[in-house]
Amino acid sequence: MIGKRFWSLFAVALGGIYFLLPLAGMVDFSMRMKRGEYSFEAYRIVLADPQFQQTFLYSVVLALLTIVLGILLVVPTAYFVRLRLPGLRPVIEFITLLPLVIPPIVIVFGYIRIYNTSSILPLTGTWLGTNLLLLFGYATLALPYMYRSVDTGLRTIDIASLTEAAQSLGAGWARILTVVILPNVFVSVLSGAFLTFAIVIGEYVFAALLNVNSFGPYMVWMGGNRAYEPSALAVVAFAITWACMGLIQLVTRFSKFSTARR
Amino acid sequence: MAFLDIHHLEKAFGATRVVKDFNLGIEKGEFVSFLGPSGCGKTTVLRMVAGFETPTSGAIRIDGRDVTGLPANRRKIGMVFQAYALFPNLTVAENIGFGLKVAGEDKASIARRVAEMLELIGLPQLGARYPFQLSGGQQQRVALARALAPRPQVLLLDEPLSALDAKIRISLREEIRRIQQDLGITTIFVTHDQEEALSISDRIVVMHQGIADQVGTPFDIYNRPATRFVAEFVGTLNLVDVDVVEAANGRVRLGEVPVVLNRPLSARAGERISLALRPETVALGRTEGHDVVLAGRIAEVHFLGSVIRIRVTVGGQSLSLDTFNQPDRPPPAVGASVEVSISDRDLLVLAA
Prior knowledge:
The complex is a heterodimer of chains A (about 260) and B (about 350). With about 260 residues, chain A is mostly helical. Chain A contains twelve helices and no strands. Chain A has two domains: about 1-30; about 40-260, Orthogonal Bundle (MetI-like fold). Chain A is about 80% helix and about 0% strand. The radius of gyration of chain B is 25 Å and the shape is elongated. A six-stranded mixed beta sheet of chain B has the order 6-7-8-3-9-10, sandwiched between helices.
């Protein structure tokens, strides 16, 4: 028994070291900006940089918009496919997987070719158009994660019966989706939203090629020009990610009802 | 015209006709059960009444209004599902108030109606709970209250008791019947359980292969089954082979014993036909009014508590009979020779 336990602990420790050691090294390095002492100087510089504030805020807003768009796009689609067109599910699943297979650079080149200033729909010509293009692009990138988690969430509830129950009580589609379906897959939507957030916050290729000043290009620029600040920036990015994860855990645990407990 | 009128209803999925020329009129306040094995089309008819399936042809009218083309959410029909289908994210009170909220009623009247419904189902203190905090029986009561709250024209119950355990099933079915009678609501109850259907219905529709085999009161269905399927599906049945002696007045021979049915038979003299007999109409020993006496041997004795079911071999045929338990009279031993008696009136001639 003790032997078995030792080896499982050993395996966990090995995995832990693999993940934690580089992180520890990065944190250590990020705090050595001032010679001979540990300090948060690099963090101070990064956080005080107006470029950081501006690009980060931009990416956060864009990420939130992407999440909203993703929910509006994915929840009804996944719901109706499950409810009415189950035969179409493999097709939809394949389509949602395409963004994983096709590199972002191909997608963005396609966008630029189709929507450039001399095309019928010159989206790249205006600020709003470019941002919209970026938003749509990010929604596409997030599709595999969003669709999968929503679809998994829908599998855990009896959507056919819930839909019929709501219909017999007089509810129309909009109400069924917003009052009955969405709240019951909320946790799944949230995990999809978190992944979307993580993707959009650090995305570089789309932003760089569409010449948008978002957080991704800023990090790359910082990495190419400074020594300690990029590490501090990476630590900050990690902290944000972990905060998101923690929030999801909290929301899941303290949500008033849980499908898992049924 | 009946309150709920189902007129030449047909439903086909591809080449399979699951409901064939279904006609039924249900009066206001009536409790009608659709009884049949799985796949007989009973649920499909119910779902067409609810608006979840579109009939291939035929019409459904409620209170004189044709609802065949009306979407489910505009039919004013309450439905209770086998799987409860309570909204997991809403409390009991919010579940019950859902239909009222959809109808745009104000908060105060919703709260009043919800309290009234909770009282009706006997769970006045559980309004703030979530469905997962309730037992199956409680969930189904809430589902019933939710269906009834918006005052529907018709209540549809789709095997509402099937997911519950035996004791709760009986108490809940009595409660459903009580509530239905209190409110006087027109109700269709779908079940595959004959005991359920017999115990709570005003009328039963026995369905078989998409057709309504027989429509009648529980008493009629049980005692005068119209078809062989109805006779076999509802209750337990003995089938006895007899030889026709004379078809016109129904003279037959059961083994060596002559029996006069006093009913014309469609079979010809010399043919062998099956007659049906309920176990409780067969008496052990001679009984007044039972003119046909047969000699046999006890093959099996099943003590079921209040009832003892005995299988007797009579002239190569097997007959089941039910007697009540009597504490001072133990059941006969297996292998004992006995006489059983039946009344020719209790022999059922079944159409194919």
